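In this supplementary section we document a worked example of the pipeline. Step one takes a protein sequence of length 80 as its only input; no multiple sequence alignment statistics are reported here. Step two produces a three-dimensional model, which step three serialises into structure tokens for compact storage. The input and output of this example are shown verbatim.
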Amino acid sequence: MANAAAARRGEGTPRRAPARPRGKAAAKARIGLVRWWKVALLVVLATIGLPVAHALFGEVVALLGGAVLLGFLLGRWTAR
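The serialised model returned by step three reads:
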């Protein structure tokens, strides 16, 4: 009732929630999230994956595998 009376008096309508971004703004937001997920994945692989590989396969295999994996991931993520 209060909203109807306010509308009759010309005081405006109740506020709505702001609209979610669409189009280019939403695409940019998704790209930013994907980029940070990739960074998080790289950090997790470095902090958990390398010590596990070292324990299971030895130092040389862990270092070589980490270098190959890092090069592959960075190459894929930065390719145009």
